[in-house]
Amino acid sequence: MKLFNLFSDTTKYTLFLRLFTLFKVPSLFYVRPSVHQLDERTCTIKIPFKRRNKNHMNSMFVGVLASGADCTGVLAAMHKTQMKGVKVAFALKSMQVDFIKRAEGDTYFTCEQGLDIAQYVKEAVVTGERLNKPIKVIATCPDSSGDEPVAAFTLMLSLKSMTKKEVVANAVA
After folding, report:
1. How confident is the model over 55-83, as pLDDT tens digits?
2. What was the pLDDT predicted at 114?
């Protein structure tokens, strides 16, 4: 396992994401997301601006933008459950989108609600009930638009604990 330690955390997270999407969500694997940043506060996913992700107007296809936002919100939640060692089922219940500009370059999807998501996961584990919580994801294209957002997403993340009751006491401590 020393070889695995030679890679940076973002490379490890990207490898995990690619393997997960290859076997569980192949359509997301096709757009080649990579992890740019993943820590306790922030999750940023990059989707490259390649032929497979473009539409006829030479901008990123709306389905790819939605996939990037979905991936970012769920990966942030998955990261929190792995850190706590609990099992939580995730689903997106709804999505609201404001398309501000055309995405004409590599697109970065950022969710800065890591601490809120950790609290949501803890709440889902403690109550055992399904919770629906809003998550905000901002898409930017630094190459073409600088730091200006090209889209703003509000995802309704649905969480339900799958952890056995005996484990809950240890997980929330």
Report:
1. 999 999 999 999 999 999 999 999 988 88
2. 93
Quote the CA–CA distance of 66 and 47 in Å, as a whole number: 11
Band (142; pLDDT cuts 50, 70, 90): very high
Tokens representing residue 101 in the block: 């500009």
∠ CA 138-46-25, nearest 5°, is 100
Q: What is the DSSP string of 54-94?
A: B-TTSSB-HHHHHHHHHHHHHHHHHHHHHHHT--EEEEEEE
What is the rounded CA–CA span in Å between residue 59 and residue 53? 8
Report the alpha-carbon distance of residue 96 to residue 99 in Å, rounded.
10
* Euclidean distance between CA atoms 31 and 33, whole angstroms: 6
* CATH, residue 111: 3.10.129.10
Let me know: does 54 contact 61? Beta carbons within 8 Å. yes
The domain of 128 spans 4-171
> What is the tally of structural domains in the chain?
1
pLDDT by residue (tens digit) across 94-129?
Answer: 999 999 999 999 999 999 999 999 999 999 888 889
* Integer Cα distance of 168 and 39 in angstroms: 23
Burial 105-142 (b: 16+ CB within 10 A, else e): bbbbbbbebbebbbebbbebbeeeeeeebebbbbbbbe
